[in-house]
Amino acid sequence: MPIFPANDPKSYFRLYTLVWLFLVLLIAGLMIAGVGSKDYLLSESGPIETLSAIGYLLCAAVIIRLAGDWSGRWPAAGLLMLFALREMDFHNRFTTMSLSKSRFYLSPEVGMTEKLIGGAVIALFLYCIYRLFRLEGRTWLVDLKRGRACAYGVLSALTCIVVAKSLDGFARKLADIGILVSSQASSYASTFEEVLELGIPIMIGLSIACYYRHGRNGA
User: Fold this and answer.
1) Taking a C-beta distance cutoff of 8 angstroms, is the pair 79, 125 a contact?
2) How many Cβ atoms from other residues are within 10 Å of residue 55's Cβ?
3) Dmax (CA) of the chain
4) Distance in angstroms (rounded) separating the CA atoms of residues 176 and 187
């Protein structure tokens, strides 16, 4: 019997497991890698970050190409493209500071035009999330209860998002509440964050493949 039978949506659970195993092994490999190799792989616009951005763009392109209802597909495609731009550092590459920080909108150093553009981007991001929740949220929860594979792919991606965002600025967040961490612990947190961010588009891509191959039966 094939490991991944084409007509069995449940085979995607095995794929999700393999992806998690790959992410764990990648984290372990980076932790024991030499400083130069690790810094290169995890650097801004380095291989891992670039692959994450490419993964988001490919997922968005597939949704645009295959989805039948534009009103339903544009929030998902738009959100994925915003994620890709975030990976390519567009949130701070052309602005005075990161537009994801509240200080961006309060600082007198930032011009009004920048603030308006940043506010529009954040508003678009939040609207995409709202539309996806309205369109798919209830169905997704039902599919989770029914144990459908595509829904668990989305859950895996969301898990990567939550954990990665929790680790973003790990040392700074703890320092704000009076807890100091070693540089090694901070480095480990950064490794986890970058690798889990790579896992997001991979899990989303598998969920998309499952959905368009098997429909709601694979969800």
Assistant:
1) yes
2) 23
3) 65
4) 18
CB 20 within 8 A of CB 203: no
Q: 175-199, pLDDT tens digit by residue?
A: 777 777 788 888 888 899 999 999 9
Backbone dihedral region for residue 45 (phi beyond 0: left; psi -120 to 50: alpha; all else: beta): left
d(CA 80, CA 61): 9
- Ramachandran region, residue 39 (left: φ > 0; alpha: ψ -120 to 50; beta: rest): alpha
Higher per-residue pLDDT: 70 or 11: 11
Q: Using an 8 Å Cβ cutoff, are 203 and 156 in contact?
A: yes
Q: Distances in Å between the alpha carbon of 100 and those of 95, 103, 174, 184, 207? A: 11, 9, 19, 26, 28
How many angstroms separate the CA atoms of 153 and 159, rounded? 10
For residue 61 the two structure tokens come to 């392109």
pLDDT at 219 over 50: no
| Residue 110 near residue 104 (C-beta atoms within 8 A) | yes
Q: How long a stretch of residues is the chain?
A: 219
For residue 219, what are its two tokens? 């969800």
How far apart, in whole angstroms, are the C-alpha atoms of residue 20 and residue 90? Answer: 28
More confident call, 2 vs 86: 86
Instruction: Examine the pLDDT at 166 and tell me if it is beyond 80.
Output: yes
Indicate if the alpha-carbon torsion angle 132, 138, 144, 146 is positive or negative: negative
pLDDT tens-digit map of 118-155: 889 899 999 999 999 898 899 999 999 999 999 999 99
